Amino acid sequence: MQATIALLPGDGIGPEVVAEGVRVLNAVAAAYGHSFAYREALLGGCAIDATGSPLPAATLAACEAADAVLLGAVGGPKWDDPRAKVRPEQGLLGLRKALGLYANLRPVAVPEQLAERSPLRPELVRGVDLIVVRELTGGIYFGAKESVFIRPDEERAYDTCVYTTSEIARVVRRAADLARQRRGLLTSVDKANVLETSRLWRRVTTEIVAHEYPDLRLEHILVDACAMHLLRRPADFDVIVTENMFGDILTDEASMLTGSLGMLPSASLGDGQRGLYEPIHGSAPDIAGQGRANPLATILSTALLLRHSLGLEAEAAAVEAAVAATLEQGIVTADLAAAGSAYSTEAVGTAVVAALQRQPVAA
Ligand SMILES: NC(=O)c1ccc[n+]([C@@H]2O[C@H](COP(=O)([O-])OP(=O)(O)OC[C@H]3O[C@@H](n4cnc5c(N)ncnc54)[C@H](O)[C@@H]3O)[C@@H](O)[C@H]2O)c1
Q: 10 Å Cβ neighbour count for 180?
């Protein structure tokens, strides 16, 4: 297969981890006979420095022309002034919106080698393998909002949560498709005992699953109960689908099950195949330029890219298996290593590439 991938390394450790992601993609291309062309572009702080805009028109054009986008991270102390008119994260939000990426997928799997590192007891997180699908472009973050003085000493603010049937339906279908490829359990999270938008969410979800996915098991859980169950019985979940703000909070909670920010990939998808893939961590300015960043979240993001944008499931699984083999060998960066036994960003990337090359290529 031939594919074009836009690369947005961004700021801080972004370029270091994206470089390892590209080495892994090149190893996949060589092993499976694919041809990947890369178009590198500026996003975030580095784009502000070079052009004055966090999302230059040339970057958006490169992403729109690509089959998939691989992003590092944006931001850093240099651009952190809250009074600044242009900020790095505007580039990321603008890009998600411009590409119509309404479904954010965050897989959380706890490899056996990392079970001891979780803030939860190892027996609770063993076997955790779930995906949270968060609605990304609707809900309370995008509804009408205002803060006004109703008296000189009294200010009144409101935010409005709005969802339409079609906004709910498209993200529920994305999640249901995933559940069908996995263990067949779809958990829809809402607050239907209180919120009108949640009652609509529950009705639409129930109808779609009943008519289009009768083979799935569907459960509805209230968001407060879900927050509790994620800590009490995380291994029971398969695919969780929820609206924007509930997903924002639950994905951060779920991400801590592994105990390491440097391990967690994400995918943002819209209609069609093109998606944006990035580690969930930020630009980690405290360790930038030192070769200490864990590249595995970015490498696992390339697996999601292969699976969701290029339809290359065997290749995606091969990357995930190579990451597991690297962890098995104890080749990890400082965030996961015992004192004195840490490998560099590049050494971890090299180990993943070597593990990939050792695997037999699936026909
Ligand atoms: N999607 C994004 O681009 C994104 C997300 C979050 C934060 N940010 C930005 O990143 C900057 C730093 O934010 P922060 O410090 O709150 O979050 P961060 O995720 O960058 O770092 C938090 C801590 O985790 C460590 N860490 C993060 N990724 C790591 C990795 N791959 N390997 C090893 N250690 C890792 C860092 O060293 C730091 O101690 C800010 O400017 C913030 O706005 C960007």
A: 14
pLDDT confidence bin for 258, thresholds 50/70/90: confident
For 89-127, the pLDDT digits (tens) are: 999 989 988 999 999 999 999 888 888 888 899 999 999
Active site residue 191: yes
348 lines ligand 1 (CB under 6 A): no
Q: Give me the half-sphere count of Cα atoms (radius 13 Å) on the Cβ side of residue 66.
A: 27
Which residues are 5's β-sheet partners?
A: 38, 68
pLDDT tens profile 218-243? 999 999 999 999 999 999 999 999 99
In the chain, the amino acid numbered 205 is T
Domains, the chain, with CATH or none: 1-102+264-363 (3.40.718.10), 129-256 (3.40.718.10)
Q: 129: helix, coil or strand?
A: strand
H helices within the chain, ranges in order?
A: 14-32, 45-51, 57-64, 88-98, 122-125, 165-181, 196-212, 223-232, 244-255, 296-308, 313-328, 345-358
How far apart (Å, rounded) are the C-alpha atoms in residues 315 and 354? Answer: 15
**Residue 80 annotated among the catalytic residues of the structure:** no
Residue 54 Cβ contacting ligand 1 at under 6 Å: no
* β-bridge partners, 36: 3
How far apart are alpha carbons 126 and 113 in whole angstroms?
A: 10
Backbone angles phi, psi at 328, to 5 degrees: -60, -35
Instruction: With residue 36 as reference, give the H or E element that holds it.
Output: strand 35-40
Task: Name the amino acid, one letter, at 185.
Answer: L
- List the structure tokens of 83: 């009074």
Cα 333 to middle of ligand 1, angstroms = 15
Q: Which residue in the list 11, 190, 191, 335 is annotated as catalytic?
A: 191
